[in-house]
Amino acid sequence: MCEPVTALTVASGALSAVGQHQSASAAARAQNEASMGNYKYQLKVRENKWRRERERYAIQKTQYKQQLSENQLAASRAVTAEQTRLNNAFKSAAFQNQSQLVQLMKLQGKSAARGVRGKSTERLDNDVLSAFGRNQSIMAENLMSAQARYRTMGQSLQRELISSNNRAFSNVAVAPEVGIAPPKPVMQSGPSSLSLIAGLGQAAVQGYGAYKEFKAPTTELPQPRRPLNSY
């Protein structure tokens, strides 16, 4: 009557120990799979972000090169406009100078035709030459002002070109870098085989305790008494 109870107790404890071991192993395995899945997802997110950053930077570099070309073209047009302005000033001065020379010759010719002599001729010539000299000075001053303006505008355009190029470069000054990789997950080791062995051993001990508890008491038979005359 005691052996079935003992066997049932041992079997129940063993099954419980095995079940707990399997449950703990399954929980650790599920945790590891979840951690590894999350780790792979973070790696994929990092890779996608790095790809987008590279694509964005490539577009910015293309735009930067285009902006440099546009800045240089705008500066060249502005310089050409200033050169044209200066050239026109020199052309205008040349035409004015020629016109004044012609006018001077006409005035001198008229004086000679009227037969003016002596001090009157000298005074007239001085007045004509003085007017011619004043006009020449005005033209020279205008040409100097035009040249100074051209130099000033050239320096201003150069500074503006450098400033525009620097602003364009600010968009590509810092190249993107790949983000920091996520830390690798710490894998759960799960229960060891020693814990299963310990559980089975504990089940055996519990079975032995049940065996002792339900064991029938030992009944000793009375020993037969020897007859007195047997000595």
Structural write-up:
- The protein has one domain (2-174, 194-211).
- It contains 3 helices and no strands.
- The protein has helices at 2-114, 118-169, 193-214.
- Helix 1 runs antiparallel to helix 2 and helix 1 packs antiparallel against helix 3 (193-214).
- The model has no long low-confidence stretch (mean pLDDT 76).
Helix percentage range: over 70%
Estimate the strand proportion. under 5%
Uncertain residue segments: none
Q: If helices are DSSP runs of H or I spanning 4 or more residues, what is the number of helices?
A: 3
Largest sheet: none
Number of domains: 1
Number of DSSP-assigned strands = 0
Could you provide a short overview of the structure?
The protein is built from three helices and no strands.
Draw up the topology in text:
Elements: H1 2-114, H2 118-169, H3 193-214
Helix pairs in contact: 1-2, 1-3
